[in-house]
Amino acid sequence: xxxxxxxxxxxxxxxxxxxKLDGTWQFAETAQQASDMGFMAIxxxxxxxxxxxxxxxxxxxxxxxxxxxxxxxxxxxxxxxxIVEFVQNMxxxxxxxxxxxxxxxxxxxxxxxxxxxxxxxxxxxxxxxLAAAVGIEYFKYVPTADPNATFGISIGVFFxxxxxxxxxxxxxxxxxxxxxxxxxxxxLIPFNLxxxxxxxxxxxxxxxxxxxGNMYAGEVVFILIALLPFYxxxxxxxxxxxxxILVIPLQAFIFMVLTIVYLSSAHEESH
Amino acid sequence: xxxxxTLIGQLIAFAIFVWFCMKFVWPPITGxxxxxxxxxxxxxxxxxxxxxxxxxxxxxxxxxxRDTKKTALEILDKANKTASEIVEExxxxxxxxxxxxxxxxxxxIDLEVNRVKEDLRAQVSVLAVAGAEQILGSSVDASAHxxxxxxxxxxx
Lengths: 271, 156
What we know:
The structure holds 2 protein chains of 2 kinds. Chain A is built from 9 helices and 3 strands; from the N terminus they run αββαβααααααα. Chain A is mainly alpha-helical. Chain A has one domain. Chain A has a 3-stranded antiparallel beta sheet with strand order 2-1-3. In chain A, 35% of the residues are buried. Chain B is rod-shaped. Classes of the chains: A mainly alpha, B mainly alpha. Chains A and B meet through strand 3, helix 3, helix 4, helix 5 and helix 7 of A and helix 1 of B.
């Protein structure tokens, strides 16, 4: 039973991996094979679900965008406008520069992560069982419980931080800012650089790990609950799923707000 | 939990989603929202203006009504005054006319009385002469005693 439980947990935490193993591209049949593939592999389940969620987001919002008018909004348009306005206010409160990118970026981050997180509400065995029925061995369907997805987004944000810092302050100005904060003395440049670069690289790392950690841990708890006898599962599954009504939007929100804050500080002239 | 090509895939997907959102989603939606905001603001503005106009119009109407009432009262007053004047005048005219008529009638009566008196006088003189003739048994020359008769008549 113990072995079975471990196997069940490991099975649920294994991505459907397609990669290069011993010179040929193939699906990994075991966790060992998947890790042997190294970097030259792709998590098909993560990609598929995240793309699906991204397309759902863009489809819904594009549909409203096409029909948007200044008349009385109804139905979906109301919903979309509430979210857009919410994001707009967040950006307006936090970000004082002028940029056509920040607000749509924040909206995309928020909605995409929200939708990917919300996949957690699907009972954990439903999709893997369906996948198994059509011969797919592994299917981990919450993309944000895969560090690849969270790092993908946070590294994108990191590139934007660097890009805007250089764009606003100039390459020299940015280097100067990194070298002379917090201590304005030439002898402390190495120390300043160490601090600032550490801070810079911590940003994407914390973004990605916070989201991943929350989602992964939640997932593990769901799996553990699923291991209990069926007649007590509801007592734990219910509260935990309800708790995720808080966790899922909160994590998306935190990711969005920190993205705005980081880009806002990238836009600020040296303090 | 391996880091692999998925990371790059996610990065690309993220970039494309953000680009699409920035290009085709955000501007139309916020544009429509801004336009609506403007429209609502204009609507409220217009409503406020209309309210003010209405209030002014009402004030004007009240004022006009008051003026009109005043004018109407004045006209009525004047009319009443004119009417009473006319009545007074008519009464006055009637009274004068009546007085005049009475005076005429009196004059006529006086004349008639005088005329009758003259007649009577004449007849008395004739009767007196006739009486005297019978008393005297002879005729009295009317022309000879005319003076006497006339004196007699004048005494009547």
